[in-house]
Amino acid sequence: MKAETSADNDEVFFEEFEELKEEEEKIEEVDEVETAEKGRVARKIPIPEGAKRKILQQAREIKKLRGQLVRAKRELSTLKGEMGMLRREVGRIGEEKTRLEQQVLEKEQYIAAYEKKLKRLQKDFERFKERVERERDNEVKKLNRKLFLEFIEIKDTLEMAIEDAERRLEALGKHRDVQAIIDGLEGIRSQVRNLLKRHDIEEINPVGEEFDPRYHEALDVMGPRGYGGVKVVKEVVSKGYRLEDYLLRPAKVILEVIDREEAEKGEEEKVEEEVEELPEKLEEIGEEVLEELEVVEGEEFEELEEAELEELEEGFEPVE
Question: Which CATH number does the domain 204-293 belong to among 1.10.150.20, 3.90.1150.10, 1.10.600.10, 2.30.22.10?
Fold first, then answer.
């Protein structure tokens, strides 16, 4: 019974072994013992049970390893294919990267050029804007100067009319109608004078001053014209006017040549006269202020009392 079981096991072993050989190729040749007679098939020698198990185990491991090897080769082939695809993709991406970098560089150069052009245009625009503003300011100043000159001409005409009316009043004696005309003209002249003051227009009335060709226009020179003399304004034919540093109209004057000592003495006398005239000027200023208030608010204001004028005069200290 045991012999039959052993024989059956041998048959199973050899069948598995043959299958392994067919599937995995030849693993190991099994020694066969030939018989003495030629042509007879060698019979198989029984193999011990332990050796058979060991051989089967090794055969299974070899089969397993060969399967793993086949799978590994397939995976390797797949990986190589993917690697090739990746390399081609990397190459394509590198080319695309180079192309995009070139485009970025071109765009940066393009932007830099336009930024430079924009800055230049902005500077040109700022200069143009400043020039337009200067030209506009100059035009406004020219128009203002022209308008101020017209007011000055009106003021001159009013002063001549007042002088003529005063002469007529002296010839006729006290005449209420003529005096009313004079008062009206003086009121208009005062308004024009205040308008010029509000716009910082300075009157040039250089009587007794040394001749200054920047602001004076000499119509005639009286006295000796030798060396050592000083040209002093003897008479002002028409007053001059200036707006800040701009001369609207020079003062037309008649000059007189005098010694330098006399000129200095005349300057001192002029200062003294100006100091003496200050109370009258203060009174005129007070009247002008009242007139302006009447014009602005449309109300009548009482004149300053003599005591208030005296306080103003006492509070003013002339500069020596």
Answer: 2.30.22.10
